[in-house]
Task: structure prediction
Amino acid sequence: MIRVVLPAHLRALARVDGEVELALNGAATQCALLDALEARYPMLRGTMRDQVTQKRRAYVRFFACERDLSHERPDAPLPTAVATGVEPFLVVGAMAGG
Amino acid sequence: MSTVRLLVGTRKGAFILESDGKRRDWKVEGPHFGGWEIYHVKASAADPNRLYASQTSSWFGQIVQRSDDGGRTWAPVDNRFVYDGVPGTHLWYDGTPHPWEFARVWHFEPSRDDPDVVYAGVEDAALFRSTDGGQNWEEVAGLRTHRSAESWQPGAGGMCLHTIILDPADPARIFVAISAAGAFRSDDSGATWKPINRGLKSNSIPQQEAEVGHCVHRLAMHRSRPNVLFMQKHWDVMRTDDAGETWREVSGNLPTDFGFPIDVHAHEPDTIFVVPIKSDSEHYPIDGQLRVYRSRTGGEEWEPLTNGLPQRNCYVNVLRDAMAVDALDACGVYFGTTGGQVYASADSGETWTGIVHDLPPVLSVEVQTLP
Result:
């Protein structure tokens, strides 16, 4: 299982507490993770990436294993520790604004 | 006795304020969607329990929330606003072509007859329609594909379609307004559109009486007289008596004719309200005195309404969608400020009371008059 930690606003929107656990079919990539997350919680569509272009929203970041994965290719494999559920995949709202 | 329900959108959530017909004591409920910008909340006239809310964030984009129980509970509906076809470009601030990009919903306008039909005015300026209660959105593309659209340019707040008026007498007629393109009218349910800006004069554009390019801040209509529209333009208060074919200025004796909201009394089609603001570079009232101005003659002659409003050290603004009137016999008038106050008058503006003082900056105010 892949563990995902959402920022507070998206947890409230999806009505979840704590981490979300996802089982992926096929390769564990950022794109597959987000596809699975949005399939489970359709209200999250468009909140992390554009619904048409699939580009990550500017103020959303993806962290895991103390690394910034935001600029990784969407089809790049996730770190093994994330794919195996040892480490969570963090969706983070960038620090900006007031 | 009737109930009056105010739907207040703010920079950090939505609030629902409720009172009986006396409009003295108010229950304040919220925030809903705390921390999100709520540009607009509006109820269906066909089903008062059906509400639509525009929930938006620079971080997480656009959410559309729907309530079927008068705002007690909410559920997100579809938030996919995709421009029809190849969207093309409009002009950017620097005059270069810029691709059309969806940013947010500024305004919802539910149909008068069907709670599942609702229009959304969005930034970058376009009109969308849902016929299934927000489950799907489709662009009313005839507006954005008007021959003038590639010359439209954003105002300081973005290129937003902020006003939608559905003609109560003619179901095929729709009015919209866009900052900073101007006002447009469709007579065929949105298939084709016509700019209706003749008579507007804007000294901040190269051709002062251009067909498009005017920064229209708000339009208002009384339902008994759909050919008469009032406009608060960036500067100037305007009036048309022929559904926008020609406009004339009715600023008259206003101390300044810059402002954002304009609204019409529920029972007196020639009684209109504006909130004069000092200037476009000083978005606050003159001399720190918050004054609503009322005309009972359809413009030109205006009187200040100050009783109960702060008359010193007040430097708030009132945004374009932040004024509304109720339908009670003694017409109630309401507005919210960027300082987080919501003011109410139960007597057509003669006296005012602050209902709530410390909300986040108010973006929009709508009112429901419930039996």
